[in-house]
Amino acid sequence: MADPTLPPAAPCPEANLPPRSAELGALVRLALPAVATQLAQMGMGVLDTVMAGRVSAEDLAGVALGGNVIWPTMLLLMGVLMALTPNIAQLRGEGRRDAVGPLVHQGFWMALLLGGLILLLIDQAPKLYHLLGADPKVIPYAERYLDTARWGLPGIMFYFVGRYLCDGMGDTRPAMYVAVFALGLKGLLNWVFIFGHWGAPALGGAGCGVAMAITMWFEAAAMLWLLGRLPAVRGTNLFTRPKGPAWGTLGQLLRLGMPIGLASFFEMAAFSLVTLLVARFGATAVAAQQIAFSVNGIIFMLPMGLGIAATIRIGHALGEGRPKAARRAAEVAIAAAVGVGIAAALILLGAREGIARLYTREGDVALLSATLLLFVAVYIIVDSAQATAMGALRGYKDTRGPMLIAFGGYWLFALPLGTALGLGWVPGLEPLGVYGFWIGLALGLALVAGGLLWRLLRRSHRATLPA
């Protein structure tokens, strides 16, 4: 494999920026493996949804409730580790490859601490279900899923340290190789533990949790093995003897990464809380909403991949002292993301009923999920813009402002509005049920997208001004 991280030729002067088509090509080369990685990771949730749905609506709803605790919590802690990517990208842009390894060592210490924390957080999930009034028939299914799935979460933290190292060095392919292989493994293990093949007990939805834990530790081991063979990490001092925790460096990573994690958490947790609130309407509503979220999540991986590519391109450009090139990368990434969103919306409008039937055999669930996909088609364009804008801002190491925008848009606007509409708290208006929650989410998402785009415009312009 050719080394994609060899020092580039002398950077193009700011007065002679490469054409936008060249920037788009560079973004796409980084984004496509990142998209494949994200889709493979998302595919694990899709496999759980599809395969658990073949058992019963209760198993599917239980996996949905369990996943709506695991994934937001995991995203929160992954965000802290994601601080590695812009730091490593700028170190590479500055030509300081030898400083990358010691920084990654601290990332592994951080992963160890976060892995222990996530196990403690997941223990509190049953209390949350009862507090929010989830269907009592579904809660035991969710608990059985969580009891096994959570033990894989420390392993996935180690995997993400290796992934963010490769991303920051400008090679997004290694994470893709591991994730795609892991997706195949997850499907096989689901088949074994859900339906009871090869002598294993038939665990139903809980089998998804067993498969998840095993697969996550496989990803950690595979990434660590691969790092020892990658040209991208040569010269980084990654395999020198690591030092103990450097609390100053860990604090810096935490200050940059915690807002990233919280921003992702606020978004994912808002969607998850909606699922928990909708659980009072029964298993059909939860299952249909899970299908709609699953389809939305698959599409969301495309602009998220562009956001990852924008983080890398902007970090490299800033490290090389080329702020105008960084701004161009941001502009091209946003335009590409909006184009992806428009194309996805058109596809959903035409194929939503067929997509719903791929997930479930139950007519009521398919009908409701097909209707919810109309909402997905409406807001996927602004969702694409906000995801890529968030990634671009990370390239500028701007994380606190986006976190506040996400909190305000989702938790101070979308959730209160959606709850009021869904549960009938608006005087003179009948309860809209699940549709009310989706109206609130769509409007909140538009608010977040507008705030992030405004901040990116200001931040990228300010970076080009003379010091």
Chain-wise SSE layout:
Blueprint: H1 20-53, H2 57-82, H3 84-93, H4 100-122, H5 125-131, H6 139-149, H7 153-168, H8 173-195, H9 206-227, H10 247-278, H11 283-319, H12 323-359, H13 363-395, H14 400-423, H15 434-464
Describe this structure in words.
The chain is mainly α and 467 residues long. The chain has one domain (22-464). 78% of the residues lie in helices and 0% in strands. The chain has 15 helices and no strands. The chain has helices at 20-53, 57-82, 84-93, 100-122, 125-131, 139-149, 153-168, 173-195, 206-227, 247-278, 283-319, 323-359, 363-395, 400-423, 434-464. Helix 1 packs parallel to helix 8, helix 5 runs antiparallel to helix 6 (139-149) and helix 7 runs parallel beside helix 9 (206-227). The radius of gyration is 22 Å and the shape is globular. The two termini are 40 Å apart. The model is unreliable at 1-11 (pLDDT under 50).
